[in-house]
Amino acid sequence: MRSFKNDYSEGAAPEILAALVDTNGEQTVGYTEGDPHTERARALIREACGQPDAAVEFCVGGTSANLICVAGMLRDFEGVVCTPDAHINTHETGAVGACGRTVLPTHDGDGFLSVEEAERVWGFQTSCGRHMTRPTLVYITDSTEFGGVWDRRRFDEVCDWAEGHGCKVYVDGARLGAALESPANDLSLGHMASRADAFSIGGTKNGMLFGEAVVIRDPDLRRDFPYLQKMRGGLMAKGRLLGVQFEAAFEDGLYWRLARHADECALALRDGLMAAGYEPYLRSDTNQQFFTVDAGLARALEDACGCEIFLTLPDGRQVVRFVCSWATETADVAELVAFCSEMPR
Amino acid sequence: MRSFKNDYSEGAAPEILAALVDTNGEQTVGYTEGDPHTERARALIREACGQPDAAVEFCVGGTSANLICVAGMLRDFEGVVCTPDAHINTHETGAVGACGRTVLPTHDGDGFLSVEEAERVWGFQTSCGRHMTRPTLVYITDSTEFGGVWDRRRFDEVCDWAEGHGCKVYVDGARLGAALESPANDLSLGHMASRADAFSIGGTKNGMLFGEAVVIRDPDLRRDFPYLQKMRGGLMAKGRLLGVQFEAAFEDGLYWRLARHADECALALRDGLMAAGYEPYLRSDTNQQFFTVDAGLARALEDACGCEIFLTLPDGRQVVRFVCSWATETADVAELVAFCSEMPR
Amino acid sequence: MRSFKNDYSEGAAPEILAALVDTNGEQTVGYTEGDPHTERARALIREACGQPDAAVEFCVGGTSANLICVAGMLRDFEGVVCTPDAHINTHETGAVGACGRTVLPTHDGDGFLSVEEAERVWGFQTSCGRHMTRPTLVYITDSTEFGGVWDRRRFDEVCDWAEGHGCKVYVDGARLGAALESPANDLSLGHMASRADAFSIGGTKNGMLFGEAVVIRDPDLRRDFPYLQKMRGGLMAKGRLLGVQFEAAFEDGLYWRLARHADECALALRDGLMAAGYEPYLRSDTNQQFFTVDAGLARALEDACGCEIFLTLPDGRQVVRFVCSWATETADVAELVAFCSEMPR
Amino acid sequence: MRSFKNDYSEGAAPEILAALVDTNGEQTVGYTEGDPHTERARALIREACGQPDAAVEFCVGGTSANLICVAGMLRDFEGVVCTPDAHINTHETGAVGACGRTVLPTHDGDGFLSVEEAERVWGFQTSCGRHMTRPTLVYITDSTEFGGVWDRRRFDEVCDWAEGHGCKVYVDGARLGAALESPANDLSLGHMASRADAFSIGGTKNGMLFGEAVVIRDPDLRRDFPYLQKMRGGLMAKGRLLGVQFEAAFEDGLYWRLARHADECALALRDGLMAAGYEPYLRSDTNQQFFTVDAGLARALEDACGCEIFLTLPDGRQVVRFVCSWATETADVAELVAFCSEMPR
């Protein structure tokens, strides 16, 4: 059976790969500094965002993009507020902290940063002046680590709160395509771009060989990013590679089609499993689906389709994660649903 | 009325000050590198700890001692487990994080690190290999931020747990005197020194003008400390000053007498306030006492005796902290108890 | 005319690209953690090095590889000795320094670290104990930034010196292929691997799309590298991409053939220009060639073939750099030599 | 014989010590945050500098002051230009680098930063855009590490150069008193304060028990300093101690009288040794004097008066340093001159 382990288990979508092959013989300047593909990709992304003055930069991967942007928007003694499950808090080996900045997790349990928790953390951290890390940045993820989609109301609430508290906003868009193409979404790329000080547009998990774009409105980060990117080891010598891929992805909407396909597969999977009596952990309308199962079943599913055992609940049951990608096929979903339906529970 | 704000509001105990004055004219080598007072202080502390081979170093202050030791015992990608109220987690402006290391707070609410919470954090942080900060150090505070005293059983439990999980142990002893001289204490300096990989012996809050001693058994930190201390700006040019003070404090038990006096004042205050119907927040048997009062009373007490409003509870009531020191007098306590008894509640 | 600007101006060698295309549909685990291509590449490189127990890791780029390894082999207060032109000293925006470690350049002017200068820097840096950054690592580049080749005698001298002074040795092999395939080379990969504590094998500048391998004998770095790589943002999600490329490069000697071709083109260019009366700046036997010309000619050459103006001499003349790669053709070299020969000087 | 090893070998001047003793019983708020002595010291220093709006902060020591200010004025990828002998480059164990910032030494050999060398370093470091550490700060020391005094012309030249190149200026004034009280000085405190973005006023080496003041005009550093100081472990709990000392030093010119005395002793020593045929290494008009002697004589002098062997020249001769302080007496100088005069050379 096809693996549902994650969305970075396979190569690039055929159109992306073809673009890399077609341009392989071209000689270009390096470092994303002016080759025609990178410049064209920049223009396409600026246009898609409705931000003609934003900087668009290209990174080798998500952790690199996050640490450059998050640490780059913080002075030494400042911190970033995020949910406890945030990638920068749990799965990047302290990368932001390794740059000397502090991650300030809330107690939110569902992947969405709440204004109440942001306010609580902010209130605590500013209660003792210079003796405490000062929160000046908010980090959210769309779609969230649990597959959730930020709707416009919720997003605006957080942005309003941030604005009112002297905080900037960064959106980790490692799975931004999956979020914006979800049927549950009502947030436009343009609106997000108009309020976030910076955000990433993930390629690795959406059909590219590798690479993330970063859109930057914040003037300080715009100025500093080129230096920080080189200094943090995140600048690609053959910058063209990133430009070529994002050019192909944004020239005619391929980026969004790939994401929509992954979402559709995942929603079919979700509906199939629910129909078969499986219990969703948290509602997800994107390409990651989470179900709560007994430990024995979790292991069986892991063996069968590579799904990850995401967490273990206090009662011993486990949450498994199924991930669909651009490469998942309808038949793969049907096969998995059939398999799951037949498993004893 | 005398202020009960904190134990670093005043100068040095007379004996300490006299030692500084008496030695003021001596010419010595700098940097705690071999002047006779520093060497004598080292010998006295080693003897008091029963650790003839431990390194004893002297620092200008507690944050400096903590950041040098904690960051110094961690490799870049490692983290330190502590309670959420730990000084390194809340009141040092991210000093450990600024050295690129990560603080990993538990959910313990009473100032004591529990084995259960340490295990939970450790389990989570090691669940995803290289993708997560690796916990390799445990940080505890004796007495705790809430005035609690680590008894031997509890201390050994944490040390056993740490040993079993490849973690070192650091004890922040900013108020170690208050802990070890408390009537609630059954932990000897010798036993603590035999199990902690490093710990501090606070002078600033126990009658010295300033300064903390650090006792180090950990061989790596022993070797690195001199360099780290200079590099982090924590090495005093006139190192003699620290040596002279700790020599005076440990020559004939002055250090312990000063701490015992502060404890006795605070326990008399506690008993007086409880007799007057005040409600303790958490039990403290040391020189800091915490009481829960209405917000109005909190402000009145703050105005009268400088006590700090330590935290606000969900029900709106506030926890105030009274701190006694070497300089508090019995009459000061009596005056405060009388004042509090007369306050309307 | 084909550009001679650098060896990372173009895509991948056809065999490398084909391997990526051929494996594009495979589903593999991520992060270089066990996919068959990465494991095969590791085995091939270990075998080529004669180091069955070495760790072989794969990085996205050279700066990332350098900062992870160099900072990873240094404790906080330690430094790395290198030549002033070393990439880590000049062209990585202080990447090693951004990890809190110190770069200690010598005064060597020709790209080769001399034992005399290493000794001088070491002597100075250890003359004042804890007050100075302690040198514990030596960084060399083969081929050097000026195209030079480390011969075995010179290499062993530096390794002997390092061994005698408690220093480890790291070789930046961004252009290792060009060095080892040069006619001037008498140093085997096996010998280098037996003495360097860690070294990189550059792919980006030798026909791969991107990527560097790192070979690690040093036990501490072996243990820490996986964490450091993730923490510094240098771990690729689709780790397979790196494995596939290095597998293709090392399966049948392609890596070395590509390098030899680039060297041969460059030596033909060198001989052609010298025959035409051009003056070499420093002798290079590898794929980078440096010539001293008048400023006007420098600009004309830059316009014609993209060569970089590398530095300006005190007398106003300039050093231009021509770089050949796997993609350079004999006819390109002939065209450039003809062009240069006709230029008025 | 009295030791001439350094100016931090002894305690505090009697007036400073008396001020500490007199105020020992006062209860004050901590952390230099508003106690009357600290506020008075701030006002006195602002007045002396003619900078009513400058921030005046107090640090425990020179390395701490330097690292907070220098790193605090640099973004992550920026560097500070200084002479190779600068304290931050050689004798602070890489403290600035440990904050992730880069020190960019020139080749100046006499302790004075020259505009020519600043320009050269700046030109090199900005020749390759984002690939190189960007110089944005100039660090000078007055008096220099070799005892030299910055005259107004030279100082203005560097400040003009900095202004023209987008660089800020920091003056390390660890021995500022010795500089400004030197007969060779024509630079007023007010003029320096009007041009430096920040500078320190050293207490440790000029008769205080310990402590340095920092005067800050730079608006960014003013805003950040309180947080940075706590975060770097450089904030003293009993902040009063620093306030009391600087209040006593600046109330009636004591600071300057102490420095002038040290200078006068040193100049008498210099003249005496020159009359006896000793050869000065570099001209110094302040409290440090440097003489070139044979190695045997260097050792004999070191044994006799504790002077440091500062460096060894290529010809094997050595430079010894004699330092006078507030505590040096005329008779001490006479004794040393007599001793030196009798030594066989």
From TrEMBL, chains A, B, C, D:
InterPro entries given in the database record: ArAA_b-elim_lyase/Thr_aldolase, PyrdxlP-dep_Trfase, PyrdxlP-dep_Trfase_major, PyrdxlP-dep_Trfase_small
GO BP terms, alphabetized: amino acid metabolic process
Gene3D superfamilies, per database record: Aspartate Aminotransferase, domain 1 (3.90.1150.10), Type I PLP-dependent aspartate aminotransferase-like (Major domain) (3.40.640.10)
Full protein name: Threonine aldolase
Cofactor(s) recorded in Swiss-Prot or TrEMBL: pyridoxal 5'-phosphate
Family: Belongs to the threonine aldolase family.
Keyword field contains 4Fe-4S: no
PANTHER family assigned: L-THREONINE ALDOLASE-RELATED, LOW SPECIFICITY L-THREONINE ALDOLASE
UniProt KW Transmembrane keyword: no
GO MF entry, a single one: lyase activity
Keywords: Pyridoxal phosphate
Organism, as annotated: Granulimonas faecalis
Domain Aromatic amino acid beta-eliminating lyase/threonine aldolase residue range list: 33-294
